[in-house]
Amino acid sequence: MLTFTHQDTLREVSTPAGVLRYHEAGDGPPLLLLHGSGPGVTGWRNYRGNLGFFAEHFRCLVLEFPGFGVSDDFGGHPLLDAQRAVAEFTDTLGLDRVDIIGNSMGGGVGISFAINNPERVGKLVTIGGIGTNIFSPGPSEGIRLLQEFTENPTRERLIEWLHAMVYDPALVTEELIEERWALASDPAALESARRMYGKAAFAAMMAMMRRADVPMPWAVMHKLTVPTLLTWGRDDRVSPLDMALIPMRTIPDAEFHVFPNCGHWVMIEAKAAFQRTVLPFLTG
């Protein structure tokens, strides 16, 4: 398997909205990898363990969303800025058509891009994080812990949240904690996170989505026309498994794969099985 370093793969591109940074590795058709949200997250940290595998088949582009401490902050709601960033990024790089892997929030961003630009997306893979709670309470345990950290960021609350992300607590190492804490405690990253997960901001977002003239994201998934693979950790405490029911049923061309003994980070916690599942889907 190919190996890459952070610095060797780091690139940046200027867009009308600001500088976007990304990691690039491999040759072949373009594969856009979109990260999730949460304290100390980056695209590199989400996908560094998968980059060598997929770079043997694709030109991998790991985009760093604005507002998470790597790319420029566009200054708006991080979810809306991420949607804008994908359009700016693909336009600026001249990418006419891409396959997409999106983790959690990144999956939702990928769905939005594919609905609005169906001719520009070949296939789409999502990793948890989409749909809506059917049987489980909402917000979920992981989202509540994320909100609590955002309101009062302490190292202890970060550790609690990290444990909610995984099935195997051994994955929450001191190295992971320190790596995440360094970026999660950055004032600029915290300010951006509060636009999304601060309790007031989260309540305002939910109120907006309850308006009759604004459909909930899960209510428009029937408009997604590209072949889609939904992947999920059976033991996800951030986006519980029942959230997959509506996407699985309403996306016209959707496959669904569940990984046992696995939390929210499928591409990390079930890495080999995830790769074995996703590659045939993308290349078949």
The CATH architecture: 3-Layer(aba) Sandwich
| Beta strand count | 8
Give the strand line-up of the largest sheet: 1-2-4-3-5-6-7-8
**Number of folding domains?**
1
What's the CATH class, please? Alpha Beta
pLDDT averaged over residues: 95
End-to-end separation in angstroms reads 21 Å
Order of secondary-structure elements: HEEEHEHEHEHHHHHEHEHH
The biggest beta sheet reads:
8 strands, mixed
**How much helical structure, as a percent, in the residues?**
40-55%
* Low-confidence sequence ranges: none
Q: Please indicate the percent range of residues in DSSP E strands (runs of 2 or more).
A: 15-25%
Derived from helix and strand composition plus strand pairing, the structural class reads alpha/beta
Give the CA-based shape.
Answer: globular
Radius of gyration, whole Å: 17 Å
What is the CATH H-level superfamily? Alpha/Beta hydrolase fold, catalytic domain
Number of helical stretches of at least 4 residues: 12
CATH topology category name? Rossmann fold
